[in-house]
Each structure stands twice: as structure tokens, then as C-alpha cells.
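Q: Sequence in, structure out?
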Amino acid sequence: MNFFITRQPLVNRQGKIIATRLRLHADDGMDSAAVVDALDKLGEYWPQSDRSIFVNFYGAGEDMGLLDWIAPANVTFELSGSPFATENAAAFVSALKEANLSLCYDFDDKAAQALGSGTSFRFVGFDTSAFSPAQLKALLAKTQSYGIPIAFNVDGQQQFAACMDAGMSAAAGWFVKQPSSTPAKQLNASQAHIVKVLNLVRKNADVGQIETALKQDVALSYKLLRYINSVGFGLSCEVQSFKHAVTILGYEKLNKWLSLLLVTASKDPMAPTLMHTALTRARLMEQLGHGLVDKSEYDNLFITGAFSMLDLLLGVSMEQALEAMHLPEPITDALLGNGGMYAPFLDLARSCEDGKGKALAEQASMLGLTGAQVNQAQLMALNFADTMEI
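A: Exactly. Output:
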């Protein structure tokens, strides 16, 4: 049976991710026991950070069987009002209390039953596709004593601002993919300097020459060493200098990690969320490539994912962002929408964000990947992004 996970970032008014929202997409014939089994098998890949993970079960049914899942400590269960309006509601409420879970009630037409059940909700979520900003403000006034208010499925920057104005504490959605300003005509000085260093590395320039270029911006050297020494990199020893990094990593791996400097050079208010998304795509594409492309292509898949949001991160068009960079043709083709061998992996990474389970399943099938493989890779990628010091 097909079982896929898509995700949304839950972003606060400062533009930082405070949680990740996972939406489950299961075949119609998949019952709660099968869903729990699939989730249990993902346990070893589950993100280990303190960042909360909301799990939306709508595509997998809602009944007491879901409570058999021994959920990781950072999970918040999202529940609609439906299970609170059945003949088994009393038993369901009793089981919830015994399980002592972190809960989010997704506001719907069963609000009277859900909020009147005596269940302790930590959050109350509102689907912005169902309520206007004025309605959200009115509903918040009536429900604020029941849980922290958050908005779901927010797709635009204006909608995000309206949710914050209405009193929401955070919003989940991909509004961050909308440009927050008019594209600039060129890279700023700091961005251009990083591109210069990247090009030196790709040309295998002398170590001393690259080190001299890095030292022209002390912050760059510091950031590079911080990324390389992050938990996500997994080195057994601490890298203390650029020369040490070259010795341990070699030029090809160093190119991959220098690329992160460009990704994190943004001053956009939503930069933290964009960076996290780019890092998740990067690691996801790298993981999905295992067994499907030659090992020599793994780093290029990573860079393709990392650079897939450069236009938003740098505030210029993708063509301008790539103009001064000497990237391999398959990376450029994928980023500019011209196809190529990396394009299907980028399309799949984007499908993990779109919230359409069927489209994700079709994209995975094109690469010969199962739902389990995609879900595992996505959770591992999330864990990686969470552990990077961005």
C-alpha cells in the first residue's frame, strides 16, 4: 500500500521555523493499524531535535487505533473534531487522557464536541483556506483559552501577515516561497565574494590562494568551519583550519560545504526558513540518489537541492544567481527548468512540500522509489537540516 509524507514548516512572526508539520497520505484501504505500523518503521529515522513535529492524520483515518503508535517525544497529534462526535467519543477522550499526548485540535464544525470534551489541547489550529482573516480574529477570541492559536495552509506573504495581525502565534505553509521584494539586478558584494571563492575551489586553485580569498572575509571562514563541524556532517574530529579542511575533505567535498555559505548569505526576513528548506532538499536529493546514480554524482545532487532556492535567498533571478558560477551542466539545467539527470530528483523534493500525496507517489514511481524510501530519506533530511547551525 502507498503511504507518503509531505511537510510544511510552522513559522513564527520572526520568520523562524519552530516546528514541522507532517501530513500523512495513505491509500483508502489503509486502516489505522497499517498507518501505525508504517510510522513505527520510521522510528529510527525520526528527527531527534527538540523542534516539535505536528502529525496530521487526516489522510489516514482517525480512531483509537492511532493511539497504539508509540510516538517520539517531539510529536504533537493533530486531531479534527470527528472522533469527538461519535458514539465512541467518551472512550476516545479517556484514551487520550491516559496517553498524555501533546495535542492540536484543528478547528472545524465539531468544535462544540471537541472543545467541550474536557480534552487538554496544547494548540488550536485554523485552516486558512476555510476562514477569512476577520473570521480568524473572531474565532481566536472565542478559543484562545483552549490552546495556542496557529494557522495552517498559508500560501501567501500577505496571508501570513494577516494571520499574524489576527493574533496567530505561528503559521504553517509555503508562503516563504513567494519573493518578499523585487529581484535585485546583481549580487551584493558579500555574495559575489562567496561565488569567487567557490569558483576557485571548482578550478582546484592552490590552497594558499583559496585561503587568502577566504581570509578577506573573516565571517566566511568562521561560518565554513562551523558548518563542517556541525553534527550533521558527522566528522570524528574537529576541523580547525581551512588547510585542515582540505586535507580531510578534499576539493570536491569542500565545494559542497562552501556552497552552504552562499545559501546562508541571505538577509531576507524569511531566510532561516528558506535555508532550512534548501538544506532539507539538498540532503533529501543526496539520499534519494543512493543506488540510482553513480557515487560521484551525490555531491552534485546535494548542491542542486541547496541551490534550488538561490533566487529567493539572494534576491535575484535564478539566471543572475547562476551567471557567474561555473556549475556542471546537469545542475544548471535542473535549476533553470531545462530537465537533465538531476531534474527528477528536484521535482520529487518539491513534491514532498506540495501536500499532494498522489502527485508525490507518481513522482516517486518515476524513479522506482517506494513510499518507505522517500519517507525515510525525507525524515533523515529534516534531521540533518535541524542539526545544522544556520
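The chain has two domains: 3-177, 189-387.
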